Amino acid sequence: MPTLPRHSNLAIALVSGAGIFYAARRVAYAPADPGVTARANAAAHSGPWIHGHADLDGVRLHYAEMGSGPLVVLLHGFPQCWYAWRNVMPRLAQHFHVVAPDMRGYNESSKPSGVSSYNIEKVSADIVGLIGALGEEKAHIVGHDWGGSAAWYMGAHHANRINRLAVINAPHPAAFQRELRRSKQALRSWYVLAFQLPVIAEAVLRLTLRRSLLSSAPSPGTFNDEALDVYENAVSQPGAATAMLNYYRAAVRQAPSLMPQATLPISLPTLLIWGMKDFALVPELIEGLEPYVSNLHVERVEESGHWVPEEKPHLVADALVDFLSEGNNL
Q1: What is the pLDDT of residues 17-74, one digit of tens each?
Q2: 15: Cβ–Cβ under 8 A, 6 or more apart, which residues?
Q3: CA separation (Å) from 218 to 201, 214, 279, 304, 312?
Q4: CA 49, CA 96: separation in Å to the nearest integer?
Q5: At what angle do helices 120-133 and 146-157 cross, to 10 degrees?
Q6: What pTM was estimated for this model as a whole?
Q7: Active site residue 145
Q8: How far is 87 from 273, CA to CA, in rounded Å?
Q9: Dist. CA 134–CA 44, nearest whole Å
Q10: What is the pLDDT of residue 1?
Q11: Catalytic residue check, 248
């Protein structure tokens, strides 16, 4: 059989690549499914919370809130939104004014363009601004996943705006740098490099979000249909998939400048809750933190994976109430 000339093979490859890219664009930027949107909106407005917005420096943050008392700000992770805290908020609201924002780029909050808009400094500055917009000088900060990364950064750079700090399955930057040099964590972090691919990563995120959440939670029933509808609808908002992935893209680009800051000390009372069955983060990340976090308590959750606020919400809520209430005579 005759073979095609080499330039013909190249042409076929280019056409095939263009077709794949075009198909990925259609998936990545497809409008939200109206049925999913209707169900998501019903779920988001079915709880005891109320919704609000804070206009900050060029960014508008949506949030859900309930309760009264000392302010607690709950920061979600990827690929979720404020709704990740739905089963934690009512217990906390018995003692605190609880506010769970959509972080910039997510769900109903603003989605500024450009990778640099998702640098950790800007993400953290939003939360500092939110505290002020809510009429407070300080707040308790609780963060999971990317929200936990923002919490670590705030603890090192904005300690004067924080009462107590709680982090859930988000690695301290010094520990993460240490473990990335070892193959076990490096292999688990492969997806960070995959997320650098434009358009393709957005399409994969849109296509696999529901399945990925379900398959990565070792606790049965972690993500019900309502939660999956909320998260699918959130990532389907215009610009949301790119904005959410830009957290990872900004982190990779910013890593060299942030490495020297990884060991900045945190002296705030700090609680680290860690699901020991995390699929993406090795348990060694919770070891050896004493030189960086001087007032640290670690609580291991043996039967939880990465999504602890949704896998074990009652455990998380009780641990947070106990920790955040210390000294408040609640």
Answers
A1: 556 767 889 999 999 999 999 999 999 999 999 999 999 989 999 999 999 999 999 9
A2: none
A3: 25, 9, 9, 7, 11
A4: 13
A5: 80
A6: 0.93
A7: yes
A8: 16
A9: 21
A10: 44
A11: yes
